[in-house]
Amino acid sequence: MIELNFKKTADGLIPAIAQDDESGKVLMLAYVNKTAWLRTLETGEAHYWSRSRQEIWHKGGTSGHVQVVKEILVDCDEDTIIYKVEQKGDAACHKGYQSCFYRKVEGTTLQEIAEKVFDPKDVY
Length: 124
Known about the structure:
Distance between the termini: 36 Å
């Protein structure tokens, strides 16, 4: 079994970056605990720990925008992972964008650099 370093943080969470397997575009950053990690390995679909809901979160379980994991990269300290995924549906972002990184810093403001691909009111 692959052992990640969940003991490095007090809450037992490690960062997980979701990256589009084909384009290389960073889709989102979330966190996994040991249970989410094991479910991802078992199912082949991304599972995370929802810090706001304090529960395991199957990405796309509600929206249908599932992330099929094609490859997993582990950093040298075994405390950060990258899920290279096939993003099903239109988007990874719950606000309706393809990527959660849809804004950039422009001086002292945030400028949107992407278009919404769905209306969250229609999905959630």
